[in-house]
Amino acid sequence: MRSFWIVLEQTYLQSIRAKSFAWMTMILVLLGVFILGFPSLIDKFSDEQETGNYVLLSTAPQLQINQQDLNAFQSEHNFKLGEASDIEKYKEQITEKKLDGLFILKNGENPSALQLDYYMEKADPLLVQHTKTFTQNVYYQHVMNERDLSQDVVNQLAIQIEPAMQTIRDTDSNSFLMIYLLIAIMFLAITTYGNSVATAIASEKSSRVMEVMITKISPVPMMFGKILGIGLASLTQLFIFFASTALLAKVELFEIKEGSIAETLMSMLTVSYTLYFLLFFILGYFIYAALFAVIGSMASRPEELSSSTLPITIVLMASLVVEMIFVIDYPDSTAAVITSYIPFTAPISTMVRIINDVVSPMEIVFSTGSMLISIAIFSLLAAKIYPKGVLKSDQRLTFSQLLKNN
Questions:
Q1: Which fold has domain 52-155?
Q2: How far apart are CA 367 and CA 350, in angstroms?
Q3: Fewer CB within 10 A of the terminal residue: the chain, N end or C end?
């Protein structure tokens, strides 16, 4: 047991002292800063947007816009009333950057419709919509005055029916973005640290360090010491990410607006969600780490790992594709339930279902149990294969060779 703790400590310290660990940690911290500061950054650029100069005129006989109407136009941009005879001059001013845009209200192809033409170097959909609403209101006001209609009647006739798709579940759109973020963190961490397990073993084999270590430490404690040491390093990195994000939010360095991604992130950083995420991350890591340890013991040198780990990478990518297509948008579907019990997809599927509140406590227990059973099976397989693989440094081995009895 003492040898196990020695390997675990040495592996953990070696992992957190690596340059890749420092860079990855820095990237995660910057990611947290970006998530919290993005809404404020957008507002800053929006506030600094320069005021534009625009011309508005009407060639429609049934609606002549006057200066009094234009004075009621509430816009951050400067609008002035134009003349129909000067349209070409206004266009030239736009090309010469002396004018930002031109709006022309005219008769449409349908006699009962009006058309709003606009000329700009770069379209501004929000301004166009704002101007359209203003001209509609002016038209309603003119009709009301001509027909002697009350304002209530005009308001009732002008009402618009806007279609708006609503979500079936009580989950806002930002939650889906956070689900994607958590999946990306889990996927990248499992891939990165799983490969680190295989690389560490293959490097020691190629340098013959393994031959010295194996005389002092039995192979199985060595394998689990490496897996746990690298796993603790990954948890350290995730702790730094979540802790730094929570600290930045606590000191209110950035303004967190209601409904923003940052606000969703902070609402998801509850004790229960954080514990669930750590639980399924650890289980997912051990499922793949045992397989990466076997692959590392099969390779004779690190250069062979890219091809040796390809089957595991394919399984990881296939699991991710299944999650993206069948689980994220349909967390209460049959496919989501089934993938909650498959070891390669269970960590992410169960976490997605927990966030969407469509999973029962018993399903969480069964899902966790299936992953623990899978980890036990993969660990027994790794314990059988690993001792044989680490001593064969002169050739690349196959599963069939490693499964044979001595």
A1: D-Maltodextrin-Binding Protein; domain 2 (3.40.190)
A2: 7
A3: C
